[in-house]
Amino acid sequence: SKVLYQQQLGRGLRRNKNKRELFVIDVVDQYGALARPWSVHALFSLPYYVPFGEVGRTYQTGDIIEVLGLAEEVRALVPVDITTFESRYAGYLDEEQTARELFIGTTTLKSWVRKGEVHADLTLPMGSRAIFYFHPDSLETIRAIKGLAVHDEETMKEDFFAFIDEKSYTFSFKIIFMLAMLKHVDSHGEANIDTIAEEYRAFYQRRHAHQLPVDRPSCIYTEEFLSDLVEVKRNMLANPFEKFERKRFVHYVKDLSLIAFNPILFEKLSGEERSSLIALLYTHLSEYYEELGGLADDLL
User: Fold this and answer.
1) How many CA atoms are closer than 13 Å to the CA of 55, on its beta-carbon side?
2) How many other β-carbons are positioned within 10 Å of the β-carbon of residue 254?
3) Burial class (CB in 10 A: 0-12, 13-18, 19+), 244
4) Residue 129 burial class via C-beta count within 10 angstroms: exposed 0-12, middle 13-18, buried 19 and up
5) Which residue has the higher pLDDT, 106 or 300?
């Protein structure tokens, strides 16, 4: 790694009254398509290899190098590839970033690439799989091919309500999470994550207490699981929070333990719209549990 390489180089550069020169011998091997080891040339952006050349000095053919009392003529300047992945592909978007920009899932994006429906600008083989990267300019091309609309700050409110209206509920998690958010956020659209997690798990604990199905049979929310708030919080952040976060509707600041609506979205939501949204979510929740023991008022 760069850090370890610099540490070793730094140790060699420590001052000593008997030290006049430091010779660096880099064993440069190619570990893969992009995994290049660090070297003095890469670290100091030296584009040419000159045996026994001094770091920081520019050489020309015919120059004389003196080393330990011996003189050597520079006969050739050997080019060295010092580019890194970051410099060569600066600005490229990975699969996750591209999917978020296009407002789709990463699975969908990968499927399109594998079927040849869209083109990845860079493909990195990783064993039996591959990682795809996309140039920012390719986003418009993909949108045109797949008929995707642009989703930005101007469309965020419309996108948010469209996402709720989809009623895409594998489990009830998204409904309960959003109801907890709408109940506890302050005037800035922020809330403590523990408060949200407590409200979130309390709903499922009440169903256990009433001996009702907590959710669909494959739901992992057993009484034992729900007793661990840390685990509940971790699971909540993975799903359902991530479903809203990847569309930029919410975000989480770990250092402050704050979970919040996107301020642009929250500013556009009037009090009346938030009340209507709560009513709509309760309707969705009632429909969801219609065949799972129902939804009595004392369970809300």
Assistant:
1) 14
2) 9
3) buried
4) exposed
5) 106
Q: How many residues does the chain have?
A: 300
Judge contact between 10 and 43, C-beta under 8 A: no
Q: Would you say 226 and 215 are in contact if contact means Cβ atoms under 8 Å apart?
A: no
Whether residue 188 is predicted with pLDDT greater than 80 in this model: the reply is: yes
Q: What pLDDT is recorded for position 46?
A: 83
3-class DSSP state of 166: coil
Residue with tokens 């009513």: 279
Secondary element (H or E) of residue 66: strand 64-67
CA distance 184 to 155: 25
The pLDDT value recorded for residue 89 is 86
Q: What is the pLDDT of residues 44-65, one digit of tens each?
A: 888 888 888 888 788 889 898 8
User: Which among 138, 38, 149 has a CA at the least distance from the CA of 104?
Assistant: 149
Instruction: Considering only residues 236 and 65, tell me which one the structure prediction assigns the higher pLDDT.
Output: 236
Distances (CA, A) of 105 to 140, 233, 242: 17, 23, 11
Residues 6+ apart with CB under 8 A from 161: 277
What is the CB-side half-sphere exposure of residue 8 using CA atoms within 13 A? 12
Q: Cα(131)–Cα(144) distance, rounded to whole angstroms?
A: 23
**Mind listing the pLDDT tens digit for each residue in 118-137?**
999 999 888 788 899 999 99
DSSP for residue 38: P
Chain centroid to CA 66: how far? 51
DSSP-based three-state secondary structure for 251? strand
- Alpha-carbon radius of gyration of the chain: 29
Question: In whole numbers, what is the pLDDT of the chain averaged over residues?
Answer: 90
184 touches 199 (CB < 8 A): yes
Q: What integer pLDDT is reported at residue 297 of this predicted model?
A: 64
